[in-house]
């Protein structure tokens, strides 16, 4: 029994998944962060932790296994207990337990459980498609220091005596302002003339178009009725193929998946403004998990399950 696979599936939807008589995996939402040392931006995520004090059987894991493997609830509990016994024996022998995409558990020198989470998988479904990125360091102060250095080497100063010896500059400035104002006036008059001409031309074109429409005779032949059988996908379990900022990329993904034999569709935009494409939607979790395992194995190892009721 791949216990870590079932736990990983449940961590997408629940904040606590308990292994009876062993401990519980907990998730806590963390906002987006920035590493000041590396200028790296990290998307929001769920941080996984482990609490060995929570061991009471809440039935969540057993019910899920019973539903997936089509076995009675009592049999599922027995399989979990058998697996827990093996896990504890490994720990007492000093071995490290590795739960794929979740983390590693080991006993320390005092016999306490230590848990090291894995960051390969983000269990926060709202952050799907958002990856970390590095921004280059802004160096505005460097340019400011360079300018200050240049000013020290080549000082710029205008004295009163120099202004008096060049009176022609004043008259040149006055002439420049006069020419600029005259040019602006002429430019404004010219633009107004063009706008008036364009408006008259637009009105004439509209009149000619209306005249041609009134003279035209349209003959519409009724077409034979066509019956289309459309299968509407339903269910709250969706296997997500990707999320895209640009909707055109979303359409390209759908075209690609159709060429691969799938029946993809768009399910709308999430709260981060990303257009989501799914392989399909399913009525039960068992159907969805069976499909996603096959998709991960043969087509896309990064496909993930979204449990959401669509409007």
Explained architecture:
Among the domains are: 3-134, no CATH class; 237-307, Alpha-Beta Plaits (2-Layer Sandwich). It is an alpha+beta fold. The longest helix is centred in the middle third of the chain and has 48 residues, at 168-215. The protein has a 4-stranded antiparallel beta sheet with strand order 11-12-10-13. A 3-stranded antiparallel beta sheet has the order 1-2-5, covered by helices on one side. It has a 3-stranded antiparallel beta sheet with strand order 3-4-9, with no helix packed on it. The chain has helices at residues 3-11, 60-69, 73-92, 140-153, 160-164, 168-215, 247-259, 285-298; strands at residues 16-19, 23-30, 33-35, 40-42, 45-51, 97-99, 103-107, 113-117, 133-134, 237-244, 265-269, 275-282, 304-307. It is built from 8 helices and 13 strands. Helix 2 (60-69) crosses helix 3. It is flat, with a radius of gyration of 35 Å.
Largest sheet: 4 strands, antiparallel
**Total strands:** 13
**Helical segment tally?**
8
Give the overall shape, derived from the CA principal axes. flat
Derived structural class:
alpha+beta
Summarize model confidence as the mean pLDDT: 77
Output the radius of gyration. Answer: 35 Å
Question: Which descriptors would you attach to this protein?
Answer:
311 residues, single chain, 8 helices, three-stranded antiparallel sheet, Alpha-Beta Plaits, alpha+beta, 43% helix
Could you give the topology of this structure?
Elements: H1 3-11, E1 16-19, E2 23-30, E3 33-35, E4 40-42, E5 45-51, H2 60-69, H3 73-92, E6 97-99, E7 103-107, E8 113-117, E9 133-134, H4 140-153, H5 160-164, H6 168-215, E10 237-244, H7 247-259, E11 265-269, E12 275-282, H8 285-298, E13 304-307
Antiparallel strand pairs: 1-2, 2-5, 3-4, 4-9, 6-7, 7-8, 10-12, 10-13, 11-12
């Amino acid at each position: 029994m791949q216990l870590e696979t079932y736990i990983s599936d449940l961590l997408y939807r629940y904040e606590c998944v308990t292994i009876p008589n062993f401990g519980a995996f907990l998730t806590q939402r963390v906002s987006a962060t920035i590493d000041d040392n590396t200028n790296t931006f990290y998307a929001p995520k769920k941080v996984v932790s482990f609490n060995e004090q929570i061991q009471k059987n809440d039935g969540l894991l057993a019910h899920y296994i019973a539903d997936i493997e089509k076995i009675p609830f009592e049999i599922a509990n027995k399989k979990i207990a058998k697996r827990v016994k093996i896990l504890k024996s490994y720990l007492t022998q000093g071995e490290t337990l590795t739960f794929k995409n979740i983390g590693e558990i080991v006993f320390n020198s005092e016999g306490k459980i230590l848990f090291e989470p894995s960051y390969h998988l983000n269990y926060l479904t709202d952050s799907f498609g958002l990856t970390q990125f590095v921004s280059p360091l802004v160096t505005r102060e460097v340019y400011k220091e360079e300018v200050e250095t240049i000013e020290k080497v080549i000082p710029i100063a205008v004295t009163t005596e120099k202004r008096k010896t060049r009176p022609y500059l004043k008259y040149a400035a006055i002439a420049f302002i006069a020419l600029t104002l005259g040019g602006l006036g002429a430019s404004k008059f010219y633009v107004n003339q063009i706008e008036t001409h364009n408006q008259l031309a637009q009105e004439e074109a509209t009149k000619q178009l209306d005249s041609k429409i009134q003279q035209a005779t349209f003959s519409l032949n009724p077409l034979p009725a066509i019956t289309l059988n459309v299968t509407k996908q339903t269910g709250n379990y969706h296997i997500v193929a990707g999320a895209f900022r640009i909707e055109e990329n979303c359409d390209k993904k759908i075209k690609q998946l159709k060429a691969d034999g799938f029946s993809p569709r768009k399910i709308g935009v999430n709260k981060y403004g990303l257009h989501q494409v799914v392989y399909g939607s399913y009525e039960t979790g068992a159907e969805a998990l069976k499909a996603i395992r096959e998709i991960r194995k043969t087509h896309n190892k990064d496909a993930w399950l979204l449990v959401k009721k669509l409007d």
